[in-house]
Design brief:
Number of domains: 2
Helix content: 40-55%
Mean pLDDT: 90
Number of helices: 6
Low-confidence stretches: none
Shape: globular
Largest sheet: 5 strands, mixed
Radius of gyration: 19 Å
Distance between the termini: 49 Å
Strand content: 15-25%
Number of strands: 5
Order of helices and strands: HEHEHEHHEEH
Length: about 160
């Protein structure tokens, strides 16, 4: 960094390798507050590199097998849905049903953010809408932070132009 301080890259890569991370659950990157977006971008950029042989002198690379985004305040981006060919209004592509006891634990954890009590009220109200019978749904967006470029699509288009 210009001021001589170290950025997040080295620290995050070291930590992900040290704890042998296999999954990253990151905050939603779509229309969220800048701090949530920053955490998402750090995880989506540094995560794949934790498994690369870069900086091998730091520690042994560890490949992260899956990446999920969770909803912080609002809906997910339709990008994954559109590129997957599913209905664009169904943006989450992974769901888990949890017990009421688990939801109570989440509720109690959220309440620990005392300085944000007004905002927390709306989150608690929003979470009540997740109830399905005697369970609560947790929705996620599974994503590939480093998608490969599919050349065959372009080859077909280019060959038709000849």
């Amino acid at each position: 960094m210009p001021d001589g301080n170290e950025g997040t890259f080295h620290r995050v890569i070291s930590l992900l390798r040290e704890i042998k991370t296999t999954r990253l659950i990151l905050p939603n990157s779509y229309r969220e507050h800048i701090d949530h977006l920053a955490v998402y971008k750090i995880g989506a950029f540094d995560g794949p590199q934790a498994g690369d042989s870069i900086l091998a002198d730091m520690s042994t690379p560890v490949r992260i097998r899956s990446y999920l985004q969770y909803s912080v305040w609002g809906d997910f981006s339709a990008e994954e849905a559109l590129t997957s060919g599913v209905q664009p209004n169904v943006k989450a592509n992974y769901a888990v049903l949890v017990s009421e006891n688990y939801e109570k634990q989440i509720h109690n954890s959220i309440l620990q953010f005392v300085s944000q009590s007004k905002i927390i009220e709306s989150i608690i109200e929003q979470r009540k809408k997740r109830k399905i019978e005697n369970k609560f749904m947790e929705l996620y967006l599974k994503f590939n932070p480093r998608p490969k470029l599919e050349y065959s699509i372009y080859k077909n288009i280019i060959s038709k132009l000849k």
